Amino acid sequence: MLKHLCATVLAGACAAAQANATWTFTYTGFHDTGDDMFLPDRQLHGSFTGADGNGNGILERIEITSLILNGKDFVACEPDSTTHYTCGAEAFSYSQAGGLSFKAGEYGGDPEGWAGSGHYYISGDGEYTYSYRASHDERRAWLWTDRTGFVIASPNPEPETWAMLGAGLLVTAWAARRRARRGG
């Protein structure tokens, strides 16, 4: 019985280890191409949720369930893409050794191609916006520089992970109590 209980707890721990986790990050300080100046207080806030399903130490695009940049989830918006509007995370990878890399954005236009706009992010490169119509074209970028700071917070376990941990502790306590009642 004890062996069965230990195997159950171990399986639960392994499942919890594979559960999704959420990392949060902030980039601070960008070069504004519109004003041609460095903005030390400009920030890009983000988070991503996922699990390293293949165990290679790299969280890859296929393994994430969200990528939020300045409030927009570029994984969740992918199903909204149409012929004239595209939204999504084109590339993503994260590892402690290799850092964070992503390319995500949204863009669209009218069917005739007279008007459109877009907003996209390429880590290590820039945040870009553009819009156009027949008499107007506007582009702006906030570029990464060697002064751009980066902070990433440790992952926060998802609620399912806490539930699994709680269930495992309850089962362990129950088994210990049952064993104590039996006198052995």
Number of strands: 11
Q: Would you list the SSEs in sequence order as H and E?
A: HEEEEEEEEEEEH
Helix/sheet category:
alpha+beta
Low-confidence spans: 4-17
Overall pLDDT level: 85
What portion of residues is helical? Answer: 10-25%
Largest sheet: 11 strands, antiparallel
Distance between the termini: 12 Å
> How many individual helices?
2
Could you say how many structural domains there are in total?
A: 1
Radius of gyration: 23 Å
Give the CA-based shape: elongated
Q: Work out the strand percent.
A: over 45%
Organism: [Empedobacter] haloabium
Signal peptide: 1-21
Pfam family, one: PEP-CTERM
Protein name: PEP-CTERM sorting domain-containing protein
Q: How does this model look, in words?
A:
It is a single chain. The chain is of the alpha+beta class. The protein has one domain. 22% of the residues lie in helices and 49% in strands. Strands 1, 2, 3, 4, 5, 6, 7, 8, 9, 10 and 11 form an 11-stranded antiparallel sheet that branches. Strand 1 and strand 2 form a beta hairpin. Helix 1 packs antiparallel against helix 2. The longest helix has 24 residues, at 159-182.
Map the helices and strands:
Elements (H helix, E strand, L loop, with lengths): L1 H17 L2 E12 L4 E14 L8 E2 L3 E6 L2 E2 L11 E11 L3 E11 L6 E7 L3 E8 L2 E8 L5 E9 L1 H24 L2
Antiparallel strand pairs: 1-2, 1-10, 1-11, 2-4, 3-6, 4-5, 6-7, 7-8, 8-9, 9-10
Helix pairs in contact: 1-2
Protein name: PEP-CTERM sorting domain-containing protein
Pfam family, one: PEP-CTERM
Organism: [Empedobacter] haloabium
